[in-house]
Amino acid sequence: MFGLSNPQRFMAFTGPLAPVLWAAAGVLLAVGAWLSFSVPADYQQGDTVRIMFVHVPAAVWGLGAYGALGVSSFFALVFRHALADAAARAAALPGAALTGLALVTGSLWGQPMWGTWWVWDARLTSVLVLFLFYLGYMALRASIDDEQKAARAAAVLGLVGLVNLPIVKFSVDWWNTLHQPASFLSPGSSGLDPAYVPAFLTMLAAYGVLFSALWLSAIRTEVRRRRVVTLRARRALEA
Question: Taking the domains of the chain in order of start, what are their residue ranges?
Fold first, then answer.
């Protein structure tokens, strides 16, 4: 892992890996979508339950993406590692997209189940705060012209946002919330209906591989961008 912290070795290693991840994501999404529409409707929620196969994986990997952003920010801030900073920056947009998708699909699922599009529930509010951290991170980087200063300021914000992750995860346990607790691999829970497990796990894996493909491609793009910036700066100095 630390050997890949060298940008040149990282680019050489991930070059063949990126297409494999994109292909795997496409296959998993296709299979997951087919399974999601093949499962029977829920006896209470009807076909609305199918939103689960989009909403839950998006929420899970929205959290995972911010974890990647936060850990990368730590290495960028403490060790001043350029590739870690590129990884943190690359995780922001996919993570924001996944979290935004979780919020939208959650509202679509909540309206027929709860009778309202939005409530200031602990889980919903903490996920909204997570989304705002993503937007704040990207806005902060864009608002500072000096790239090094922008990277340091954004890294601090990225680390602060890590505090919100356990709040999102355990909000349904710590407070009396409208949002249901975890129904899969949760101690004391009745668990997810076995008919839904293959579709759920496939979509969860599909979103994970898709995020990996997006993140890896974005890091590679960021590395190329920085190389171009550095090359232009050298040519300007030579001129």
Answer: 20-35+51-177+191-238
